[in-house]
Task: structure prediction
Amino acid sequence: MTIYHNIAVNRPIEQLFSYAHASALAVGTRVVVPFHNTQEVGIVWQSDITPDIDIQKILPIQTVFDKEPPLPPEWIQLIEFAAKYYHYPVGASAFVALPTALRQAEPFRLPEPDAYFTLSDLGRQQALPRYPKQLALWNALFSGSLNKAAARQIHTEAHKYLQKWQELGYLKTTDKPQHVVFQQKINLNREQDTAVKTVLQQQNTFAPFLLWGITGSGKTEVYFEMMAEVIANGGQALFLVPEINLTAQLLERLKRRFPAVETTILHSGSAKMARCQDYFRAMSGQAKIVVGTRLAVFTPIQNLRLIVVDEEHDHSYKQDNELRYNARDLAVWRAKQANCPVILGSATPSLESYQAALNGRYTLLKLTQRAKAQARLPEITLIDVKRQKLDNGLSSNALKLLEENIKNDGLSLVYLNRRGFAPALFCGDCGYSFSCPNCSAKMVYHKYQRHLRCHHCDHKIAVPKSCPDCGNQDLTAIGIGTQRLEETLKKRFQSAHILRIDSDTLSRKDDWQKIRKAIENKEINIIIGTQMLAKGHDFEHLNLVIVVNADGSLYSADMRATEHLFAELMQVAGRAGRAERAGEVLIQTQLPHNPLFTHIQNHDWQSFADDELARRQTFAAPPTVYTAAFRADAVKLQDALLFLQNAVKQFVLPESVVLYGPAPQLMTRLSGRERVQLFLESKNRPVLHAAVTQFAQILEEIQTGDIRYAIDIDPYEC
Ligand SMILES: [Zn+2]
Ligand SMILES: [Zn+2]
Result:
């Protein structure tokens, strides 16, 4: 008997391909099929179909990976939704969503089922171990069961003790895990308690929540309490975070709170095979907590009962190539599919989520107090630097405060979101400045590496000795980068310990662990850091933050620049004064009267968001309208422009859709290609969707040669 199947393959073509097999295969099974003289891995998308082509031409499926459990139907639905919503081919979308090991035409060998250890009756009669980590391991074995991986999370040397205790007869093995959620006495304040109870009341329904909590208000405890309850009831929780490397502290807290609960951490840094195993552990229901970055939103989770999206405003949730999805929005869709609550948490929620809360689609929960009663919000002062003479970017007030804080053994953060020594190198005689040959951008001067580097395409050249135009040998570095700040501060405060942390100094994860220890041990006086540091790190004794230059984004043409700046400044300011010591924040600006700063000084996200939403309404900008961007690039600007212009000529613009462009993008040239874009906007999402489909078809028909293009639904850049 021959059964026909439609197979999704990893090609950017809007099509499934039919293949034959002797029996019906489950939807979601991975297979290998012959494809244009080669072999291609595929996924059974539809089983037992009636082919619409000549069956003589249908080739057989070559290999079936029948040792692997098939991807579940909910996963297929999720991919179909994402592909349709983001206008990307379904096959290619499916392969974006899979871990690397499953994108290959090789079977994945599932690991042997785990043995779980728990204390035997003899073990239960023994005296408790003395050392804290051994004791933690013992306690976990006492109240539940652990496999080796879970034991290792508690104690890195766990295998030794497991072996020893097993030899002594203190342990027995079981094939089924018992997940034990320790009841911890956590003192939640009233707001935290209300938030937890409100969410848990809706445990078995689709219920989206926006959790707005000021920095230090204890959002994490709220997440953990909800997760504890869900896991105790046999469910699984998905916990999304923007960046894994910077959430070491969160992961440590997770381990402490849930030592005997199996947790997987999915992120692009984990080894290929390990990631795939974790994927299957989530899929089978074995791992109760699934933590991960944006890609983890596609992980099949058998018994999904709760989704948390932490720092929901963060742009890392948006993928900006291939399938341009937003994991935060897909998380809400998944919660609906699974009939469970989803919590989007932030100190500065996105305007999209805030609007959804205002119009009743999401329930707004507020945490307006710092969790530690003695911790106060930092005092924020603005320094008008328009008429001040600055020392390499630093005002006299800033320098004075830094000096005092060094004397008082405090920890200061000098914040500047710009790497390198100076953002440009310039000839004072003829005005020549060094631009990247591939991009519309200046080359950044990196003094210690002795090169100029483009931060967009990574093009590097040695620092020139003279001006290529006029031969002047006296080139000037203009503007301030973190290297220059470091040099200035080291000269000024020679006995102080000053540490610069940015992606140039911080390449490996171990570096970061070492640095964190040094800071926690109070070996450092001043940290110079970029945004990378502002995300999610708490140093309890940090009591002074200097924001060197807050104005860049206020001059930007990007509609979202103010929203970013607000979130960025609140995040940086929120680093200060986490513990007993009151914090102080100094913001240097040339525009102290910008209303944004008043909201920041008042720690008032909601007033800022209300103002900003009103402004967006006036300009009919997102989130008050829905947007789709079409971006095209070519070697010649004219070719890219003409491509979109020709499409516009053939396009029938629906009544309630507005078209902007085509026009060059803000950064027109990138990596040697000229980039243009146009936008479609509408207040009606289905109408916009139909218009996008129509426009996409035209583009597909007229695309030729060197032109590349992409569709971006709900884009961030404009
Ligand atoms: Zn010159
Ligand atoms: Zn470049």
User: Anything to note?
Assistant: Residues 685-702 form the longest helix (18 residues).
